[in-house]
């Protein structure tokens, strides 16, 4: 029984030692994020809307409606662990690998140094809406007790005309109760303006603007020519991809067959016989174009890991004679920086 327990303990220590001498990591594939800001404008007619022309000589606002428009669009990239690119970094005493820094999903970020800071997208924060006055707070008892909506609208319109006349008389200095100084005058005019604006809402209605966020995530793997990406309607905003009420927006992805170069890669065709190599991505450059029926909205070139290849670094970089540190781009897995120092 003792022999069995001892054997289990020895096996456990051996597995623990092996785990401590190996660090599993992934190289990323590149996700492309299309971020849209959409402005929504909503009009709500006032309850006296139908009497606007009759009593104020202003046009009616019409029925309630909402409209949408895209006011901004941006591309950004993000690294996602690629299950097909899983590797082991040996951290045994024979090699000078002191730290292996990984992202939360296991993507390799750096070795023997601090990784590049991953900039997280800042969520959009809309501006605070102005506080609107409730027009009913300014309705007199006479208006509220009127026998019909038409009579209420007539009396409200007369109240608006009285306010305007009061402002004119104040400006001319002919009001019955003139303010003592300029500050009092400004306060009185501000109060009259607020009252007029609130009462006008009952005729003109209210127009409000909101800004909405929408993000589309792509994981491209090959070229695409005029691929339908999404539909957008000025009346409904983002619509289903098969909803013909929305205008189509098309995506084109062109592989430019360009990759960066590094000077520390192993010789072409050389194999990692001892499992001691470190692998990085050489991402490929692609051109992404977004168009609708009338214009080109985006035309950008970016690097994406899945359009390039994997490169093996020279295994001698992490020998005991050298202090080598590397930093990889978190979205592409490309070798961003390398520093090597000969140890004495």
Written overview of the protein:
With 344 residues, the protein is of the alpha+beta class. The protein has five helices and twelve strands. It has helices spanning 2-20, 52-56, 141-144, 149-172, 182-204; strands at 22-44, 65-90, 100-102, 108-111, 206-218, 224-233, 237-239, 247-255, 279-291, 296-312, 322-328, 335-342. The strands form three sheets. The chain has a five-stranded antiparallel sheet with strand order 7-6-8-9-10, with no helix packed on it. A hairpin with a 3-residue loop joins strand 6 (224-233) and strand 7 (237-239). Helix 4 runs antiparallel to helix 5. The longest helix has 24 residues, at 149-172.
Which shape, going by the Cα principal axes? Answer: elongated
The biggest beta sheet reads: 5 strands, antiparallel
* Cα Rg: 34 Å
Low-confidence stretches: 1-19
Number of strands: 12
CA-CA gap between termini: 51 Å
Helix content: 10-25%
In quaternary terms, these chains amount to: single chain
Strand content: 35-45%
SS field, number of helical segments: 5
Average residue pLDDT: 88
Run of helices and strands: HEHEEEHHHEEEEEEEE
With strands numbered from the N-terminus, the spatial order across the biggest sheet is 7-6-8-9-10
The assigned structural class equals: alpha+beta
């Amino acid at each position: 029984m003792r022999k069995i327990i001892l054997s289990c303990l020895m096996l456990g220590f051996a597995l623990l030692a092996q785990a401590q001498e190996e660090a599993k990591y992934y190289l990323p594939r590149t996700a492309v994020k299309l971020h849209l800001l959409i402005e929504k404008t909503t009009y709500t007619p006032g309850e006296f809307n139908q009497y606007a022309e009759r009593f104020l000589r202003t046009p009616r606002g019409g029925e309630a409606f909402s409209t949408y428009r895209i006011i901004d669009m941006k591309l950004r990239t993000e690294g996602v662990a690629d299950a097909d690119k899983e590797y082991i970094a040996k951290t045994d005493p024979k090699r000078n690998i002191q730290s292996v820094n990984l992202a939360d999903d296991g993507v390799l970020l750096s070795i023997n140094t601090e990784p590049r800071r991953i900039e997280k997208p800042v969520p959009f924060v809309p501006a605070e809406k102005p506080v609107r006055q409730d027009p009913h707070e300014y309705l007199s008892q006479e208006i509220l007790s009127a026998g019909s909506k038409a009579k209420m609208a007539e009396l409200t319109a007369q109240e608006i005309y009285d306010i305007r006349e009061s402002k004119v008389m104040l400006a001319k200095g002919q009001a019955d109760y003139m303010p003592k100084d300029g500050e009092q005058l400004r306060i009185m005019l501000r109060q009259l303006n607020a009252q007029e604006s609130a009462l006008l809402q009952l005729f003109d209605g209210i127009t409000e603007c909101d800004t909405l966020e929408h993000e589309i995530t792509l994981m491209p793997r090959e070229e695409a020519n005029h691929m339908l990406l999404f539909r957008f309607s000025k009346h409904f905003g983002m619509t289903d991809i098969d909803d013909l009420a929305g205008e189509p927006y098309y995506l084109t992805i062109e592989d430019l067959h360009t990759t960066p170069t590094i000077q520390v890669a192993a010789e072409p065709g050389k194999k990692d016989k001892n499992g001691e190599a470190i692998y990085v991505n050489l991402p490929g450059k692609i051109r992404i174009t977004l168009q609708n029926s009338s214009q080109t909205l985006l035309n950008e070139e970016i690097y994406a890991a899945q359009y390039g290849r994997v490169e093996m670094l020279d295994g001698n970089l992490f020998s005991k004679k050298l202090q080598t540190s590397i930093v990889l781009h978190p979205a592409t897995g490309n070798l961003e920086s390398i520093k090597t120092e000969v140890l004495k």
